[in-house]
């Protein structure tokens, strides 16, 4: 198009108009070397948060304080509306069909901590925090199919029509984000979230927009699936990235950790997929079949048995396991709500328990886990009446005659 425009202009009676038109249109005709056009950043780079609008930077202190008070009041109102929505939503604990898909949670990896079973075995668990999860939007398969290329692949699959349910986590300051990003939360009537994630949900398990999600969405003993980005190791060599042995340490100079020959025989080229040094980590991975062994209701923390992808602080997607032998048979549909809460009777405190009640949390434990509030050693009357005599556990010491 640009070439035809220049040819038409230069062939006219007044060639001096060429420069004027090109200068007015802002077209730069300086020839540049061809370079690879990149529309999106490389996939291994972490996403950059949206920049703070310039208007918030130029505001004075009085205006900032007024804006903060307004934001705090809006957050309180939205939290109250979300709680009312959760109480009005009809939920029940029922059998979950095999074709049903429930919504998941957007959690944050806190770290790993060991737990002990009642028989004394040590198991390593990952601690995941559910930080202020709310349903942001519910998109029907028809609208999802028309709106995005991802919807054309996932809205209608072999499981049937699937709804896209977007969940947000971690309340954040709305002045840090643009209006286009905040609109989705204003429409749902919830505070602005720092992270969002989407799940495929069937029609019989659809939550309402703006509904809060609790850690009790999952139950003790249930198996879950965790999806997230692996640890970002940056640029690494072949030995670290692919586990190569390296070259001999004897009679070798400056090639101990190099990959050596790359097989350039015949076509003399590097074929795609050749294991070479490069970026390592920060890729989507899914770990399935992890058991939930402990839930801290007060702190909204879930303990799962085993390791999950990602570094500490990484945002992960937590959902039901789809393996047939580990599938959830009975649970809250579509999700847990305060109406399902039952008043638990406090157990009578035994004399061995010396932990103050103000240090205890409302927690749910797996029957196989050992609780530190219970005694570890129980003495009976039979143990007290010990037979007198030599302790056979100690070796005999011969007396030396002098």
UniProtKB/TrEMBL annotation:
Pfam families: Ribosomal_L3. Signal peptide: none annotated. Belongs to the universal ribosomal protein uL3 family. It comes from the Eukaryota. InterPro entries: Ribosomal_uL3 (IPR000597), Ribosomal_uL3_bac/org-type (IPR019927), Transl_B-barrel_sf (IPR009000). The keyword Ribonucleoprotein applies. The keyword Ribonucleoprotein applies. This is Large ribosomal subunit protein uL3m. Keywords: Ribonucleoprotein, Ribosomal protein. One of its GO terms (molecular function) is structural constituent of ribosome. GO terms for cellular component: mitochondrial large ribosomal subunit. It comes from Caenorhabditis tropicalis.
């Amino acid at each position: 198009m640009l070439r035809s425009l220049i040819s038409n202009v230069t062939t006219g009676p007044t060639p001096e108009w060429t420069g004027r038109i090109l200068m007015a249109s802002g077209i730069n005709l300086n020839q540049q070397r061809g370079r690879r056009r990149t529309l999106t950043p490389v996939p291994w780079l972490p996403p950059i948060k949206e920049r703070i609008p310039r208007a918030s930077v130029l505001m004075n202190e009085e205006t900032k304080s007024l804006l903060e008070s307004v934001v705090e009041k809006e957050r309180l109102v939205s939290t109250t509306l979300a709680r009312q929505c959760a109480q009005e939503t009809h939920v029940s604990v029922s059998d979950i069909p095999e074709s049903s898909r429930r919504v998941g949670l957007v959690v944050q990896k806190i770290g790993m901590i060991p737990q002990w079973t009642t028989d004394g075995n040590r198991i390593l668990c990952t601690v995941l925090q559910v930080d202020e999860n709310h349903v942001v939007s519910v998109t029907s398969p028809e609208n999802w199919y028309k709106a995005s290329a991802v919807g054309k692949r996932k809205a209608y699959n072999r499981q049937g029509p699937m709804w896209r349910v977007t969940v947000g986590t971690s309340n954040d300051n709305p002045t840090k984000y643009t209006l286009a990003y905040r609109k989705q939360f204003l429409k749902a009537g919830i505070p602005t979230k720092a992270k969002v994630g989407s799940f495929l949900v069937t029609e019989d398990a659809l939550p309402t927009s703006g509904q809060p999600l609790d850690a009790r969405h999952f139950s003790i003993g249930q198996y879950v699936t965790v999806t997230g980005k692996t640890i970002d190791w940056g640029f690494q060599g072949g030995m670290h990235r692919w586990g190569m042995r390296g070259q001999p340490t004897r009679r070798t100079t400056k090639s101990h950790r190099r990959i050596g020959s790359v097989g350039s025989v015949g076509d003399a080229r590097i074929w795609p997929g050749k294991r070479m040094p490069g970026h390592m980590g920060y890729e989507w991975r899914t770990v399935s079949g992890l058991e939930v062994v402990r839930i801290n209701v007060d702190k909204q923390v879930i303990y799962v048995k085993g390791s999950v992808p990602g570094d500490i602080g990484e945002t992960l997607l937590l959902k039901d396991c789809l393996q047939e032998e580990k599938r959830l048979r009975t649970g809250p549909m579509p999700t847990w709500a305060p109406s399902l809460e039952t008043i638990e009777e406090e157990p009578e405190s035994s004399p061995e328990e010396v932990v103050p009640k103000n240090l205890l949390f409302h927690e749910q434990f797996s029957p196989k886990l050992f609780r530190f509030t219970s005694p570890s050693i129980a003495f009976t009357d039979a143990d007290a009446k010990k037979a007198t005599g030599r302790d056979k556990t100690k070796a005999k010491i011969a007396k030396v005659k002098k």
